[in-house]
Amino acid sequence: MTMNLQPSGVPASAVKRISSHARYETILLLRNGEQALLTIIIPLFIVIALSKTTVLSLGNAAQGFARIQTVAPSVLALAILSSAFTAQAIAVGFDRRYGVLTHIGTTPLGRRGLVISKTLAVTFIAALQVLLISAVAALLGWKPQGSILLAVGLMVLGIAAFSGIALLMAGTLRAEATLAGANLLFLLLLLGGGTVISSEQWPRSLARTIEFLPTAALADGLRAILRDGSVPSLTQWLVLLVWAVIGIALASRFFKWD
Amino acid sequence: MKYTDKRAVDGLSFDLHAGQVTAFLGPNGAGKTTTIEVCEGLRKATSGTVRVFGVDPQRFTPSERARMGVMLQSGGIPTAARAVEFVSEIAALHRDPLNVNELCERLDLHRIGRTPYRRMSGGQKQTVALAAAVVGRPELLLLDEPTAGLDPVARVKTWELINELREAGVTICLSTHYMEEAQRVADTVIIADQGKIVTQGKVSDLLSSGSSQVVLTTSTPADLDSLKQALGPGVSVASRFDDLVISGPSADEISRALVRWSSSNDVVITSLRSGDRSLEDVFFELTGRDLQ
User: pTM for the full model?
Assistant: First the structure.
């Protein structure tokens, strides 16, 4: 069988390259069983468990609201942490270790195109998580308050902040260290990052520190909008913005491609 | 394409000829991968200049990268990727790629099915990487040890594809430590050792550069001094494992001298063959070491 092998090396358009590769990265993320457990199953389990039981106190601010009103925005913040930080860090870390970043650097997509594609894929997964968790929460009686647009804006900023830290870890540490570190940080931030246990439930001295974590800023901000029907404080916006800027700046400065 | 650099590769300078296959031949540590990675823009030369398509590879844009197909020595493919799906994805980055189905059919990639990359055999991994390198219709193909770990049938298939690509006008640079591969597919060979070019030229010129060769074994260790004396000037003797490798202008002269030497020194020659040189012999003559 003979094929027409005539050279004709022309790149597809930038939009086509990035959209096609973002789609491919999404498929690879969804196919990974552990990642699906982390990003879909665990958050859904927590929504149901925390809203249907009283094992965990939700704090003074939650008084007077049905439990699901507090639990839903908290778990949305946790879900975004799982995809934009943990899943992203692990995927990029292993791609880096196995030379995927090196090879893609020789294709028309390039390294920057790859990072953009991966970020789009993670954003898509986060959107999927938000829809799924919101649907389950709605079945449990959740009635979101406030401005949806504001909530989406805060979540996008959260994705930027978590992605920056994920890329910094994945681009500077060994893949195994990233795997262990990203899972450990997920667990620590789940318990002590102000997500499901809000910062105000901790002793005052600790609470002041927790408030400056991106997880607390995102979760407190989402609770302010979606439960209280108010707006996030300036501090919450600023905390996320500063983490995003510093994370992305450090990642672009120190990222090692191979 | 010119390349000059020091350290891991030192003072290398060569041109790739358009529409030809150039093989980079050398043992591990020769600097083959480093050199290829500099040409791909993956590594920065510490000194010297490199131009590919007239451009410094460090400044490649998507346009130059679309004209180049790259196969890394190993890896480069996501562990969860499936064969045909990955090749299609690389194809989608190009405006006018090869027909993915036809290419995958030809390289037997359909048979791999849904097996993820991490569970493929070494040969399957190599073949997926080769397909990904050629699917974008490159003008320049840079293949780092494309047949390492392949079974003989897959190796011949790869060689056939390389020959067809060359006939279609693709410029190909491949690294290998199989001299047979270099002899089978290459127009030009660059032989490197420890970061330096030992020799380079057309395969036919290197193989017929005026000398013949005789390889023999003896029943008892031979006295090299008496042998050298018997062979006379202009003839070199070297030992390679149990063999003695003798190179000189005329195989006939060498054989006659050997017969005289064996009877007068009471040495029994247990095997003797004379014939054309291979690239392996060229490498051995130049470095005193074996290629593998």
Answer: 0.83
Q: Is residue A250 part of a domain?
A: yes
Cα gap B98→B138, rounded to integer Å: 10
Length of chain B: 292
In a domain, A3, yes or no: no
Task: Please state the domain count of chain A.
Answer: 1
Strand-pair category, B171-176 with B212-218: unpaired
Query: Does any CB of chain A come closer than 8 Å to the CB of residue B135?
Result: no
Q: Taking CB atoms and an 8 Å cutoff, what residues of chain B touch A108?
A: 62-63, 65-66, 93-94, 136
User: Which residue range is the domain that position A127 belongs to?
Assistant: 17-50+66-254
Q: Is the ipTM of this complex over 0.90?
A: no
A100 Cβ under 8 Å from any chain B Cβ: yes
Provide the phi-psi class of A257: left if phi over 0, else alpha when psi is between -120 and 50, else beta. alpha
Tokens of A157: 């900023």
Rg (CA), chain A: 20
Residue A140 exposed, middle or buried by CB count within 10 Å (0-12, 13-18, 19+): middle
A12 touches chain B (CB under 8 A): yes
Average pLDDT over residues A137-149: 96
Look-up: residue for tokens 């799906």?
B85
